[in-house]
Amino acid sequence: MSQEIRQQYEEVVRNYRHTFENPAGEHYAGRKMSMFREALPAPSPSMRLLEVGTADGIFTKRFVALGYRVVGLDFASAQLQWAAAENPHQQFVQADGQSLPFDEGAFDGIVSMCTLRYFKTPDRALAEFMRCLKPGGVLIVDVPNLFCPFYWGVDTILDHIFGVPHPAYTRTFTREGIEGAFASAGFTAVRAKHLLLTYRYFPNWLFQITKAAEGIIEPLPVLRRLGALIICSGRKPRN
Question: What is the mean pLDDT of residues 37-64?
């Protein structure tokens, strides 16, 4: 990951947290969690889940509440300090997700939310995820959708309107592209879904409008391909 992205997340930690403390942010987090839960195996005391790009622990806390034993990894020390304070009984590691400091087969599952897009070499990251999964382990990531109009400059305009530090997006993906990357890394049972998400910075009045639009547009196959995110999962072969 670039130093620019690392510095950005060191500086915007407080702003990042606040984006989930409103109805739009709660909706955003809930929708993502429901789809990640669908692909993950049921939690157990012996299961280890690695969260790559844990940020300030907002999602870590949700995984812990479900019963997962989480190891959180992030590039930004300021984010990790918040994450550790919010999740005092979990382990946190500062490292680059493209070079994981863990043994082969260390985890039953790996989740990575909005992180793969920042890697200079996503294929290298996927290879590392594969290495650190146990046979039969599951990887789930979400990535920005190339076909979503939001990423055609609209995100920059909205960030300016709502006074949000604009993220240093580095790449977007197609559904076929991310599925192909998973397959090339050796994952099986690869599945990808489009998710039309409300922008989490929206004020409540605008959120109510966009939430209603989600329910109308998302079931339609053609329009669903314009969703903001693609969530992709795959499994490490058992032999």
Answer: 92
